Amino acid sequence: MRNVSVVPGKSSRTGAFLGWIRALVSKSADLDELRRVNRGELEQIARDLILSPRDLYALLENNFPRDLLKERLAEFELSPAAVKARHPDVFHDLQRVCGNCPSTKRCAGEFAQQDHGLHRSSYCPNTPTLQALKQENLESNARASLPIGPCCC
């Protein structure tokens, strides 16, 4: 197994581990390598990623659907970077929920067919959060477009 240094306080620890996960998945490796990690190490990795060990396994077993959330955000006209900057905890929760979603294959299949999301909102557990973020974004844009000062007309 490739050695991944996880140092508390380092912002790159998540990126390094996610890179390792991507490499593991892209090589079509099974989960045996991660399962060989002792329980203490696995729990530490999960803690560093602010996940439970169960959530970490679920992310791996769903082939790490990192692009699905990006596509879902785009459907709601939301920028991943903007959501992450404004609501980092919400963004993390969106990632966790997407990674643990039992409908990952269905969602990926619909994106592959370029379905315009007509059905995704009925089964996507992130839909209410995405709708709230979009509404917040619309309200913020509306406030920004209001004139400053009194209006005489």
Tell me what you see in this structure.
The chain is mainly α. It folds into 2 domains: 12-61, no CATH class; 66-143, no CATH class. It contains 10 helices and no strands.
List keywords for this structure.
2 domains; 153 residues; disordered N terminus; globular; mainly alpha
Computed over alpha carbons, the radius of gyration is 19 Å
Shape: globular
The count of domains is: 2
Strand content: under 5%
Distance between the termini: 69 Å
- pLDDT averaged over residues: 75
Give the structural class.
mainly alpha
- Determine the fraction of residues in helical runs and give it as a percent range: 55-70%
Q: How many β-strand runs?
A: 0
Poorly predicted ranges (pLDDT <50, ≥5 residues)? 1-11, 25-30
Q: What is the count of DSSP helices, taking H or I runs of 4+ residues? A: 10
The SSE string, one letter per element, is HHHHHHHHHH
Q: What is the makeup of the main sheet?
A: none
